[in-house]
Amino acid sequence: MARVNLLPWRERLREERRQRFLGMLGVMLLAAAGLVFLGDRYLNASIDTQRARNDFVRRENAVLDARIEEIGELKTRRQQLLERMKIIQDLQGNRPIIGRVFDQLARTLPDGVYFTSLSMTGQSIVIEGAAESNNRVSNLMRNLDGSEWLEAPNLTAVKAVTAGALDQANVFRLSVRQVQPGEIDVTQIAGHVLAGAAAPGADGKLASKNAQKKEGARK
Q: Which parts pass through the membrane (predicted)?
């Protein structure tokens, strides 16, 4: 006797396929969610690591900036110390010259003339003072011009001032250049040469003056 299966096998097969599909879909969704979670964790960890690196770099930059500032301050102090040492060395080296210059100023000071102020910048000396008359000022200028340690005196101002009913003085201001015996001023020589070309016999006067200065330097 033949048997006929009347059960809905097609429906059951369809249901099984649907169940397998849903199971695979659930697994895929879980896998995707896991990948997203792992990716998010990885990105967060990378961001935290980069932030830590950035913080470290900022701290190191702050330390380097502080050290650079300290180095700049040390360089400034070093330069100031070098400048002070140079000033001290220049003063020590020029001490004999300054003493000789003051000695020459005292020697060239004629009677009836006194100095009120004196300033020296490099080799230029500016003198202010007072004299009893213009002739005294002229004598001072001649004495300065004849000194072997001084040259090129230049009277920049002179004015008569009355201190009382009878007292009268001539206040003056002049500049002079400090030199060492044996130095040659090129501009002064050029001026003497031009003057010698215009006036015969000037070469003999220049040679005589140079010989007198050399003789004074030997003494």
A: 21-39
Rounded Cα gap, residues 158 and 136, in angstroms: 12
* pLDDT one-digit tens code per residue, 181-200: 765 454 454 454 444 544 44
Lookup result for tokens 């070093």? 78
**Domain map (residue ranges) of the chain:** 14-108, 112-180, 182-219
24-28, 33-37, 78-82, 106-110: least confidently modelled range: 106-110
Where do we find the tokens 């002049």? Answer: 174
Question: pTM (2 decimals)?
Answer: 0.41
CA-closest candidate to residue 175, choices 148, 151, 143, 195: 151
Listed in sequence order, the DSSP H helices in 130-218 are 134-146, 186-198, 202-218
State the architecture of 112-180 in CATH terms: 2-Layer Sandwich (3.30)
